[in-house]
Inverse folding.
């Protein structure tokens, strides 16, 4: 029933506990892969033997309760933390000693919501935060950065108000405008993998719709995205697959084409309450070994 | 235009307010400077309409203003350096050693700057590697460097009269086109500091680190090395200012060189609108702040007040200016 390629990917992605074994058959090639990744902080195991793969043109929703290890997982993929065990592959090549700069060079960009904006600085300095356009002596090419920011504002962010210029300080922006800025910053640097960390937090309904449209456009451009959110309703509408993280382990992968929103909500509730859940598709209970 | 768009537009503040918001500090400091200047001219027209007072400013303001420039950058990055007066003195120990060993004043000035850079390096390393607050570390090194200075020279004053035959002497403590040399150094260091803070990667990173350290980490900005370099700039500038001052008075006083510049330098930075919380500050503000402080210093003397009052006034100025800037910022920008 399965092609060898898909079978292999199932084995690595889902592991023995995976409920939706035949699910992952996205059209693209594997862009980013984690194998057996573990991470502890001060004796607490935050991630245990995580296997994950992300294909081109795929949007994965990463869901999990507080403390499930979501943010640690993305910080490993973006070079902020290094894993204690396991490895990461990008385009099939092993990545070692990943730094934030290294991850960016590979094309892994993170939208850390407002946490990665500097309020008291103008828009252009925020867009080019951490990688300004400079000459050989390290002096800034301010004119060029302002011009690019201006273009991004009118073309990509949809900021048409005359009051907003590249010199406007981030402090004066609304929640949606800040989100737009963080996303456009990620896009501008030709990201291959875009990680959105709780992107809908603090957004109005209209702004959320705009954001979800944007996430769909990532798939249309054959790039990949990981969408982390507390709200399954937001994730479900745009993700190809939902990955549930529970106490540092991957509890399961659920393609949105095969599971209804109600089924997934039930799975999540059951998992949160008992640490195990019934796969609605197979009607069998899958448990996670208690630590 | 839909109803939603109208709401969006009316919520926006008018352009003038936005302009004032981003430039509130600069506009405020310039207005305050002009008001203060006019006040002094009205109160003491004989003094403030003549050229003598301005020539005096041109010599005395640079001693602390030269340190205040890189100090602005350290404070923008969310740190502070209180050890610079002692760095001025320890730098002069380097000056005296090199001068006595080689007889060259030029090399001696370089020696002082090297010692100053090392003092800054030590501050930066302790603060960033051990992860301690800069405030506490530099209070500690303030005593460490002063104690080391006194121990190394046995507390003795060194006469520097023989340096005045050197070529560099006139460029350090003489006059060029009738204006004290110190003033030219202040201009050079101001322009260099402005370029570094506003037009260089170092300053860009300093602003981000001071504004949002977590963002700096997430965006891969080198936190430690940036802050260490800034502390080194303060150290180097402090040692250079110490050399300028010692050559002007042709003596190195190890016990108190620099003490008189502590409050004026900090006051210049804070009057100039640099935020105590980091992420905001300008070299322009510090320059204007420095001349305001210089004018107040002269004003106190002209008013016939005892110099004991200067500390009271500097303390009040620092507290007043950081409070005013904090209030202004909240009012225009939130």
């Amino acid at each position: 029933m399965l092609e060898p390629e898909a079978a292999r990917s199932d084995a690595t992605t889902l592991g023995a506990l995976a409920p939706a074994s035949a699910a992952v058959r996205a059209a693209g090639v594997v862009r980013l892969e984690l194998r057996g990744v573990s991470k502890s902080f001060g004796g607490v195991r935050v991630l245990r033997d995580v296997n994950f793969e992300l294909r081109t043109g795929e949007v994965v929703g990463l869901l999990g309760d507080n403390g499930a290890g979501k943010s640690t997982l993305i910080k490993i993929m973006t070079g902020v933390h290094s894993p204690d065990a396991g490895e990461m592959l990008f385009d099939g090549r092993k990545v070692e000693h990943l730094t934030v700069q290294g991850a960016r060079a590979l094309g892994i960009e993170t939208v850390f919501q407002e946490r990665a904006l500097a309020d008291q600085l103008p828009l252009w300095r925020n867009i080019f935060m951490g990688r300004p356009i400079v000459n050989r002596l390290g002096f800034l090419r301010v004119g060029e950065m302002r011009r690019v920011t201006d273009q991004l504002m009118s073309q990509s962010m949809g900021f048409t108000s005359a009051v907003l210029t590249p010199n406007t300080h981030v402090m004066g922006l609304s929640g949606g405008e800040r989100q737009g800025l963080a996303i456009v910053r990620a896009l501008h640097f030709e990201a291959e993998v875009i990680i959105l960390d709780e992107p809908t937090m603090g957004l109005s309904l209209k702004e959320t719709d705009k954001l979800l449209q944007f996430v769909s456009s990532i798939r249309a451009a054959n790039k990949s995205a990981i969408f982390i959110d507390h709200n399954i309703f937001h994730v479900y509408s745009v993700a190809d697959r939902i990955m549930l993280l529970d106490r540092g382990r991957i509890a399961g992968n659920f393609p949105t084409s095969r599971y209804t929103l109600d089924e997934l909500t039930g799975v999540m509730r059951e998992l949160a309450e008992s640490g195990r859940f019934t796969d609605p598709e197979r009607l069998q209970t899958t448990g996670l070994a208690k630590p | 235009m839909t109803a939603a768009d109208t709401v969006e537009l009316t919520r926006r503040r008018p352009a003038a307010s936005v302009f004032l918001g981003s430039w509130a500090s600069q506009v405020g400091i310039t207005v305050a400077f002009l008001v203060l200047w006019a006040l002094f001219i009205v109160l003491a027209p004989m003094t403030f309409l003549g050229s003598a007072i301005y020539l005096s400013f041109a010599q005395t303001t640079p001693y602390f203003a030269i340190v205040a420039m890189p100090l602005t950058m350290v404070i923008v990055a969310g740190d502070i350096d209180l050890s610079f007066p002692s760095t001025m003195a320890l730098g002069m120990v380097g000056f005296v050693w090199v001068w006595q060993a080689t007889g060259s004043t030029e090399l001696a000035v370089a020696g002082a700057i090297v010692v100053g850079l090392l003092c800054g390096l030590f501050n930066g390393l302790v603060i960033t590697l051990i992860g301690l607050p800069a405030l506490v570390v530099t209070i500690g090194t303030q005593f460490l460097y002063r104690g080391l200075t006194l121990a190394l020279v046995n507390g003795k004053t060194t006469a520097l009269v023989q340096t005045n035959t050197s070529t560099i002497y006139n460029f350090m403590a003489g006059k060029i086109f009738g204006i004290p040399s110190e003033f030219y150094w202040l201009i050079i260091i101001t322009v260099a500091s402005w370029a570094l803070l506003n037009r260089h990667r170092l300053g860009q990173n300093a602003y981000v680190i001071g504004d949002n350290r977590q963002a700096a980490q997430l965006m891969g900005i080198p936190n430690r090395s940036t802050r260490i370099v800034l502390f080194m700039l303060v150290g180097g500038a402090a040692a250079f200012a110490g050399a300028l001052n010692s050559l002007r008075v042709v003596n190195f006083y190890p016990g108190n060189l620099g003490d008189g510049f502590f409050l004026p330098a900090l006051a210049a930075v804070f009057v100039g609108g640099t935020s105590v919380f980091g992420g905001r500050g300008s070299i322009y503000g510090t320059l204007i702040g420095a001349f305001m402080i210089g004018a107040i210093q002269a004003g106190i003397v002209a008013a016939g007040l005892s110099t004991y009052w200067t500390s009271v006034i500097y303390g009040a100025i620092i507290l007043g200016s950081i409070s005013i800037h904090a209030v202004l910022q909240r009012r225009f920008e939130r």
User: Anything to note?
Assistant: Residues 1-26, 287-291 of chain A have pLDDT under 50 and may be disordered.
